[in-house]
Amino acid sequence: MKIAVACMGELVAQHFGHCEGFSIFETEHGQIVGEKAVANPGHKPGFLPNFLGDMGIEVMISGGMGGGAIEIFNERKIEVILGAEGSAKNAVESYLKGELKSTGSICHEHKHAHECGNH
């Protein structure tokens, strides 16, 4: 399974579209077996969910995300986990253990992007 985490450095980004990049974790049998970093190619409405979906992502983890991106991920049958924080690797490990649950932190206005994940 491929799991993507929106990141600022090694930490979970609080706003999906404005992250520095994505950590892509390859997992097998509940364990991380590989990791690579992919730079954010740019924030354009509707682009990133398809970009990640085309890479074979099955789970997307972020602090917060806009409703439009969530809809595209849902249409592509990609699970979205919101409200995550801390280390990207720890978030994936928690997800694999069944301990990371989505809080549904939806970002409604881009002008408040710096606050996403904190509501």
Note down, in words, how this protein is organized.
The chain has 119 residues and is α/β, with parallel strands linked by helices. The chain has a domain at 67-101. The protein has helices spanning 47-54, 67-75, 88-96, and strands at residues 2-8, 11-12, 21-28, 31-39, 59-62, 65-66, 79-82, 106-107. Strands 1, 2, 3, 4, 5 and 7 form a 6-stranded mixed beta sheet that branches. Strands 6-8 form a two-stranded parallel sheet. Strand 3 (21-28) and strand 4 form a beta hairpin. The longest helix has 9 residues, at 67-75. InterPro entries: Di-Nase_FeMo-co_biosynth (IPR003731), DiNase_FeMo-co_biosyn_sf (IPR036105), MTH1175_dom (IPR033913). This is Dinitrogenase iron-molybdenum cofactor. Residues 9-96 form the Dinitrogenase iron-molybdenum cofactor biosynthesis domain.
Helix segment tally: 3
Mean pLDDT: 89
Helix content: 10-25%
Note the overall shape.
globular
Distance between the ends: 30 Å
SSE order? EEEEHEEHEHE
The percent range for strand residues is 25-35%
**Total strand segments:** 8
Largest sheet: 6 strands, mixed
User: Which structural class best describes the helix and strand composition?
Assistant: alpha/beta
Q: Regions with pLDDT < 50 over 5+ consecutive residues?
A: 110-119
Radius of gyration: 13 Å
